[in-house]
Design a protein that fits this description.
157 residues, mainly alpha, 7 helices, single chain, 0% strand, 83% helix, elongated
Length: 157
Amino acid sequence: MKTFSTGILLGLFGAVAVSVSFAAQWPTWVMFVAWVSFYIFGKTIITSLKAFLQIALGIVMGLSIQLTGMFLSNYFGGLGLPVAVFLFIGSLAYMSKIKLLSNIPAWFLGLIIFFGVHPEPEIITLFSLFIPIAAGFVFAFLNDKAMACVSLRTMQS
């Protein structure tokens, strides 16, 4: 019975998440990257907030890489973008020494989101990515709590 209940909850939350994502015209895969991040990085509000911050910083880093690459291409031609990538990705070795910023996989998830979505280099477009990311964490949190309730009830029966 527990497996059946878990399957129903996963399917229900997934269906609602996809419906909300489609209705809001969000990139659904971005929301699911955040959903998976909730489970990978610790399943608590604090770890989710830390992961969200670093994913967001990864997105900002992606924009910075793009803009710096465009600038450097004036001087280095086709090597402008690789030089920008080298500089910014290399800086993660130093930023990861700061405890709050030490989750390098979360930074890379932000980079994946940025380069996967190909947003216009505008602040409002960039910040609009944070909404499906936040929604993904919220859906994962709610799904996890619902599954814990079902698990607890199953154990008590």
